[in-house]
């Protein structure tokens, strides 16, 4: 191994993985959150266009700034910030935990493509359970029709509980599981394949570049796979029983309804701001996670 070769990494304890994942996740969301607001607004638009509907990402940003104020681009950021630490921490920590478990189960001495996919899906399901409720609160705060109804995160929580009951906080859980299982399976599974194809890094800077490229491509693939359940989840979580019975209840049934009434392309509403966030965002996640874990290994182990 040459003088500039990357040294083998030391195993990282779970609590260090947790903290590193949290730092990576918060870094990503602070950079990319306005795109998440745009994604939600587009996903909630029912129908095939026209009227008062947003036409593009630029139109979403321009109209929000003009009609509601620039601060609205960060409306609802507190719930995802609060959950981002455990969410991203669990994403990486679960991935690092499930990998060896599946290796032992299948008698493999290394991570393979199928194991990488199964590991990602399992990590996604674990992650989904903790994020479903904060996602619901975030969606309610981001939705245009709820402007003025909620005066912050805790006010939103209190009103949902008072008007809809405790069970309302579990709305969209099934679709959230689909969303996270597909994203994590696509993300971690493709990262494995992409890194196998890319030239091996000989320096730490080269390793960071590989991680960013692999993470960005992985984020794009994961987003392409999980946008349909995200559209259905978003509509389920924004429904208020005061407006009548829910139109969407589960991912598959909701996807069929949307495809029948609005066309298959409607299942990809909000895809562009979503992929613009989670493509580069996937790269940011992987790079920050790598930088933090490298620091931990060098200074705390």
UniProtKB/TrEMBL annotation:
It comes from the Eukaryota. InterPro entries: ADT_euk_type, MCP_dom_sf, MCP_transmembrane, Mito_2-oxodicarb_carrier. GO terms for biological process: mitochondrial ADP transmembrane transport; mitochondrial ATP transmembrane transport. It is found in: Mitochondrion inner membrane. One of its GO terms (molecular function) is ATP:ADP antiporter activity. Keywords: Membrane, Mitochondrion, Mitochondrion inner membrane, Repeat, Transmembrane, Transmembrane helix, Transport. Signal peptide: none annotated. GO terms for cellular component: mitochondrial inner membrane. Belongs to the mitochondrial carrier (TC 2.A.29) family. This is Mitochondrial carrier. It comes from Coemansia thaxteri. The lineage of its organism: Eukaryota, Fungi, Fungi incertae sedis, Zoopagomycota, Kickxellomycotina.
């Amino acid at each position: 191994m040459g003088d500039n070769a990357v040294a083998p990494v030391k195993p990282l304890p779970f609590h260090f993985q947790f903290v590193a994942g949290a730092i990576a996740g918060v870094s990503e969301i602070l950079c990319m959150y306005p795109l998440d607001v745009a994604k939600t607004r587009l996903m909630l638009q029912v129908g095939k266009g026209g009227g008062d509907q947003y036409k593009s990402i630029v139109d979403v940003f321009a109209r929000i700034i003009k009609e509601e104020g620039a601060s609205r681009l960060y409306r609802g950021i507190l719930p995802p910030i609060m959950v981002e630490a455990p969410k991203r921490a669990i994403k990486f920590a679960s991935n690092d935990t499930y990998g060896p478990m599946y290796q032992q189960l299948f008698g493999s001495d290394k991570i393979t493509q199928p194991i990488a996919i199964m590991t990602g899906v399992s990590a996604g399901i674990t992650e989904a359970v903790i994020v479903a409720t904060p996602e619901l609160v975030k969606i309610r705060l981001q939705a245009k029709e709820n402007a003025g109804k909620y005066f912050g995160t805790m006010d939103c929580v209190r009103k949902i509980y008072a008007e809809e009951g405790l069970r309302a906080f579990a709305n969209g859980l099934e679709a959230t599981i689909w969303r996270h299982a597909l994203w994590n399976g696509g993300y971690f599974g493709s990262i494995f394949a992409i890194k196998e194809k890319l030239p091996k890094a000989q320096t730490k800077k080269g390793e960071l570049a590989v991680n960013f490229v692999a993470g960005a491509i992985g984020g794009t693939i994961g987003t392409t796979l999980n946008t349909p359940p995200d559209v259905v989840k978003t509509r389920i979580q924004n429904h208020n029983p005061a407006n009548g019975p829910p139109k969407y209840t589960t991912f598959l049934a909701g996807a069929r309804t949307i495809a029948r009434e609005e066309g298959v392309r409607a299942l990809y509403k909000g895809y562009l701001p979503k992929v613009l966030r989670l493509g580069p965002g996937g790269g940011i996640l992987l790079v920050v996670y790598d930088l933090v874990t490298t620091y931990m290994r060098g200074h705390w182990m």
